[in-house]
Specification:
Mean pLDDT: 88
Shape: globular
Strand order of the largest sheet: 1-2
Largest sheet: 2 strands, parallel
Distance between the termini: 35 Å
Helix content: 55-70%
Number of strands: 2
Number of domains: 2
Strand content: 5-15%
Radius of gyration: 15 Å
Order of helices and strands: HHHHEHHEH
Length: 110
C-alpha cells in the first residue's frame, strides 16, 4: 500500500483500493497458515540476498497469504522467477507472461 501511495497517482490508488476490497473477502475465507508463514520466513535466507527490501516485503506478503502468483512490471524480479518458484512455490509474472498464459483462453470470449 505504501509503495502505491508513494506514486501519488489517484487512479492507481483507486485501483489498489478496489483490489484490496476483493482481496479482503478472500482473506476472510482463507488467511495465513503456520506453513505459509514458515515458507515466507525463508526469504531471510542468504540465497535470496539478491532481492531488494521492498521486493522481499511484497513477496513475503504474497507467500504468507498463499498467493499462486506475483505480478510485477519490474524487470529484475522476473529474471529470478525460476529460483523463486522452485524455492517458494509462487510464480513471478509480468503482464506479458500473464497474457501469454491467458491468450488461448481469451479467444473463447471474442
Amino acid at each position: 500500500m505504501q509503495e502505491a501511495h508513494d506514486k501519488r497517482d489517484p487512479g492507481h490508488m483507486q485501483w489498489l483500493w478496489d483490489i484490496a476490497d476483493h482481496s479482503q473477502v478472500c482473506l476472510d475465507l482463507e488467511g495465513p497458515t503456520t506453513e505459509s508463514e514458515a515458507l515466507a520466513a525463508r526469504l531471510d535466507e542468504p540465497k535470496f540476498g539478491y532481492l531488494s527490501e521492498k521486493d522481499r516485503l511484497l513477496l513475503r506478503d504474497a507467500v504468507v497469504l498463499r498467493c499462486e502468483a506475483f505480478l510485477t512490471v519490474e524487470r529484475r524480479l522476473p529474471r529470478n522467477a525460476a529460483h523463486i518458484g522452485r524455492e517458494l512455490g509462487i510464480r513471478v509474472m509480468t503482464p506479458i507472461t500473464y497474457w501469454e498464459m491467458l491468450r488461448l483462453w481469451a479467444a473463447l470470449w471474442h
